[in-house]
Amino acid sequence: MEHERTGIGAASAEDLDWDAIGGFLAVRLPGWAADPGPEELAVRLGLAARMGSRLHPTLVGLMVFGRLPQLTQPHWGVSAVRIGGATMSDPVVAREDLEGPLDRLLTGALGFVGRHTVTLADQVTVGAATEYSEVALREALVNALVHRDYRRTSRVALRIFDDRLELENPGGLLESVANLDDLVQRGGISAPRNPILAATARVLGIGEQLGRGLCLMRRAVTARASQRLLIESDVKSFMVVLPSQHCRPLDARSLT
Asked: Which of 20, 76, 172, 226 has the most CB atoms around it within 10 Å of its CB?
């Protein structure tokens, strides 16, 4: 948690949207008085830190309430790409480098997927069948953005292939996660890498912090077709693979 409370010297208090912080404080601390002011409360909540006589945003403050966090932290964005095929050597059809605070990255990534995936007419119910479960997709995006290791200099990668969608974020599983398969099947206690960021996202309605994200993804994927949620993790990264609902089932690459 200490890394979340450390001020970012390359950014200043002017890089924060204080109107948005005021709205957050009204939700987080209903009925708070003007004294202490928003700056002091931002420090207490881990959104800002004092470095000498100056106030600087922390990781959480800049990522959630920064006007454009990537001005000083370029690796905090999302690299989104649509590949015309099933491997990284196939042609790039479209790409976007998504930037902005947490909520804008989330909506930008959802929009990219919406523009570059297929919707087919549903023969069973009225409406249409989207290529990827909206529940699973949103959970995977929130997981990648909230639980990534912000100390690593890699961006979150969103890759859409003809047969699958991959979301890979820097930082593997924490040592406290003993059984990944158990977590996917039944969920568990929330133990985030970035607890202040996770708590802030929860207050804003971006995440739940209930420890059920992976099992929600699995249920959403398996409920739609004979597909499986695939997860790959090592010490450097964590990747969720969502199978396309319009293709044959992917070969299993994990026990999930």
From this structure: 76
Beta pairing partners, 83 = 92
Partners of residue 158 on adjacent β-strands: 80, 167
Q: Which positions ≥6 away from 132 have C-beta within 8 Å? A: 113, 117, 165, 242, 244, 245
Residues of the chain by 3-state class (helix, strand, coil), percent to 5: 35, 20, 45
CA dihedral 164, 74, 192, 172 (to 10 degrees): 60
Q: What tokens appear for 249 in the block?
A: 């089932």
Lowest mean pLDDT among 52-56, 116-120, 230-234, 246-250: 246-250
Q: How far is CA 187 from CA 114, 153, 190, 193, 219, in A?
A: 28, 29, 9, 16, 11
- Tell which residue, 64, 70, 76, has the closest CA to residue 11: 70
Q: How does residue 116 score in pLDDT terms, banded at 50, 70 and 90? A: very high
Q: Is-contact 148 168, C-beta < 8 A?
A: no
CA 60 from centroid of its chain's CA atoms: 13
Q: Which amino acid is at 114?
A: G
Question: pTM above the 0.85 mark?
Answer: yes
Give the other-Cβ count within 10 Å of 27's Cβ.
10
User: Which residue has better confidence, 149 or 212?
Assistant: 149
For CA atoms 98, 156, 105, 137, give the dihedral sign: positive
Q: What is the DSSP letter of 150?
A: T
